[in-house]
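User: Here's a protein and a ligand (glutamic acid). What would the complex look like?
Assistant: Let me lay out the input and then the predicted complex.
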Amino acid sequence: MSESVPSKPRVRFAPSPTGYLHVGGVRTAIFNYLFARKHGGTFILRIDDTDTKRNLEEAVKIIIDGMKWVGLDWDEGPGKGGSVGPYYQSQRFDKYKAAAEKLEKSGRAYWAKKQIGDKLPDWKIEKMKKAGKWDDDLAKAAQDPNPALYFKIHEGEPQDIVFEDAVWGRYSRPADVLNDYVLLRGDGTPTYNFATVCDDIEMGITHIIRGEDHLANTPKQINLYKALGAPLPQFAHLPMIHNDKGEKISKRRDPVAVTLYEACGLLPEALFNFMALLGWSPGDDRELLTKDEMIAAFSLDRIKLAPAQFTLTRKRDLPPESTDNERAAWLAESLPGTKLEWMNGEYMKKLPIGALLERVRPFMDGHGYDMKKFAPERLEQIVKLEQERARTLRQLSENLRLFFVAPSAYDPKAVEKVLKKNDGLALLKEVRAMLDAQADWSPHALEEALKQFVEAKNTKFGNVAQPIRVALSGATVSPPIHDTLALLGRDESLARIDRALLIP
Ligand code: GLU
């Protein structure tokens, strides 16, 4: 089924500058972006900063950098301009004031200083919040010594607002829960519902694609559309994203800042692909899709209602007070075996080797590897060794450590199992002599020489390869041993073997 969409739809992603870009927000932005691109529409970035007091510039920069990193380019908004700006809510207060006056004049808004009941106990507030019956704006306005501007629900007006949501279908809010609500606070600042509707109307937004957490706000917003005499947009509320424990992902429990994914060595195009499939599918079983393929296949009616599963292989809980570095380390540890990691590996395999080298370079630099030690061509060959195996840039940079850092210690288990058993050290000594006499140090020649050596010794390949591996890397994992020897170079390889032979 293909939906009917007016020509040139206008959509927006409207993050609040909280100091990080939430991956759930990225998913919302991706859906808006795909929808706009599919229909030749306009994708707007608007900064919902009415509540941001400090470090606005820094917080906006984080959003912009994150959007650019993921590959989400907007048509109107910060840095781009556009005919319906400014694109910062903090710069649009005159517009909210004008809309407020209009509502006041038509009898749909009034200034009042309200007392709302006695102070409720905290547990009751929590309960009301859970039931979606708590109105933070009302509570705050009641505390404020100044009057606030309230939207007036007309007496006798039907309260059970019914609307068609592109994801939820016919959605109706139960009657009698809508009270008059705050539009402007005592200090003149607009509430979220008011600022959002004013902007969405003025910016000509035709489709509002956002998280399900805003479903409960929609009836209030619909009332405002009607009172302001504006046509309703099409709403589409995206399912929540759940973690492996079936809870809504949150900053406390989960790695939500998009920078953590970057720090873990995920490719932005892989994260884009992965996030696009959180709650949407192209209608067939394709999982790896280019951006163009996603655009071509995108449709709001294939967004699922059930919560989207964002599963990590969590081995321990994420301590809520963790630093960013600790969070990134936690994420790196929780990625193995996940779909996201698999997908990233697939994207890494597809990159031309030169491009992969450039992507992994910052991670290698981060480890302090001396990249100038190898000629550019050799560096590419080294990276190539891990292209099929590593699934993140971070893993790739770690797996290549042996090429840049000689082992300063040997894994005691490896020493015990590999060097001390099966004549490991004796074989290492003999293979060292064989290698020393090897004129051709190419991977192929080394592979042949090692095979012949193994045959002559009438032993298993591993009994020869593993001691060399421990000597070169300090541990038992490395790329194929002939490649490792060849790329590390004759002198360095022999020197490392000599050092291992000194192990008592
Ligand atoms: N600033 C709001 C948020 O981040 C925007 C919600 C909306 O899209 O209406 O949740």
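Summary: The first strand starts at residue 10 and ends at 13.
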